[in-house]
Amino acid sequence: MIDPGLAVWARELGVSHEAMELYVASDVVDLHIDSFIWSRLAGYDLTRRHSLGPLGGRFFRQVDFPRIREAHVTGATWVITTNIGRRSPWRARTFFRNLEALVGTFARVQEDFAVVRNVAEYRAARALGKHGAFIGVQGGNAFDDNVAWVDAIPEGLVLRVTLVHLSTSSLGVTSSPLRFGARAGLSTKGRELVERLNARKIFVDLAHVSREGFFDALEVHDKSQPVLVTHTGVSGVHPHWRNLDDEQLRAVARTGGTVGIMYQAGFLGPSHFGGRAAAVVDHLEHIVNVVGEEHASLGSDWDGMIVPPVDMPSCLELPKLVQIMLDRGFSPERVQKILGGNFLRVVAALRG
Description:
Elements: H1 4-13, H2 17-24, E1 29-33, H3 36-42, H4 65-70, E2 75-81, H5 88-107, E3 113-115, H6 119-127, E4 131-138, E5 160-162, H7 188-199, E6 203-205, H8 211-220, E7 228-232, H9 246-255, E8 258-261, H10 265-268, H11 277-291, E9 296-298, H12 319-327, H13 332-351
Parallel strand pairs: 1-2, 2-4, 3-4, 4-5, 5-6, 7-8, 8-9
């Protein structure tokens, strides 16, 4: 019989007991949560429970530590986003200060959260009933003054780095319209960053990079290591500058990597403010159909200025995705791979 508390949650969400039990029995790991940026910019206290606020969860207030725990999210990559407004020589120093601050934030809640570097540490945290917190970097231009700064990162502490973000840098060209007509991919320095990340067993995250830069990175990437695309959509469902095409999906799959689908309504479909959770599953299903169920994951981009589906404004509605997947005939094993198993397999392949 289902736990009474879970039965209430299932009823509130309109999901079956089967979907809820499968969800809470699974590793649920999000590849990209951006909430720390609001701590830096606006003093958002991640350790407090917040409401959705006056905007109903649009743009931010989608996640905090108490709600992550309530939502049974067992792990996530919590991201430090590079401030492009800072001059290049100061970005690395700022990154290391922010890294210390983020680790310190988790230390304040160490009864419930543990910073982890690999799957073994994640499993140890789970055994103690804790959320396993990986750390990522959004914007390799944190290191574009001198890519050797990567070597100063404490061993294993950073799981992955996106090469670029929403603007072009000396490392390479973004996929966003802010490329301002640039058509190049990665620079020599950007290729060197890929090689240094490989040497440190830090995942190269190909979210945000231009299509040319995507394939430039794969050209120099260590062929024995998988790559990640942590938060994206797929153009086979909805053509968009932010989304990957099928050739890119196949390239990721050939490395053994995985692709996280994000929850930004405007990237998932034509509606910027009226998208629904089913659109997330549309994109996951396309990945499964093109390259197989081993390469689809969840990469929400919670609190990354996204407008999430109207029926999934926060992490507390995640079991709805399970119900939609089951309704479409996904097996429980496939659902569990997508919820977290695929990501953990990829991390284990690189780091154990």
